[in-house]
User: Fold this.
Amino acid sequence: MEIDQASDEPTRERVVRSILENGPSTAAALAQRLALTPAAVRRHLDHLVVDGAVETREPRTASARGRGRPAKAFALTEAGRDHFDQQYDDLALQAIRFLAETGGDAAVKAFAERRVAFIEKDFAGVMAANPGFSPAQALAAIFTGEGYSATARDLPMGEQLCQQHCPVSHVAHEFPQLCEAETEAISRVLDTHVQRLATIAHGDGVCTTCIPSTSTTSVSTRGVTP
Assistant:
């Protein structure tokens, strides 16, 4: 039977959006989240892999699955991320290159610091407006509002801020000062050292920042929408 490709597009959009918002996912996890059959999800994933929007990644551990091969995770490729509106395109990259040529590294760093000023500007207000938020949840809300699709999750010794989408990843790939400025701003608002473990700009599936415990508040893995 011939498949109507046009009618499949809305579902494929949901699959891609789910991976964007939740990070690399197995077909089973996607099927559960989207209320689809595993066979239907795999068909859409096969199409997205052929299109170059999604790629398979080997699972990090196989210990939890017992016998048999662990399920592969599906992650967005750079082309897949391009499907979503990028706030910084080639023009922005050219502008920062010009800034680097004319003003040097100090000028790029100053620009990066100004760009992430929203973190320090909004943090206190978000915490005050949401008494139940942990610091990582407040940051997730702030970053989500800026287009990062961020979530907060528990760690044994604190929390982890995860950014499944980075609107400046193309520029940050060439100018890591943008990522560095984010990390430094997070450290300042929390008044503690934080560690950036991975970044989309350098090919990871998600940006992750480890935040040590600063309170007794415990949160579950969840997304936060402002």
User: Anything to note?
Assistant: The chain is about 50% helix and 15% strand. The longest helix spans residues 90-115.
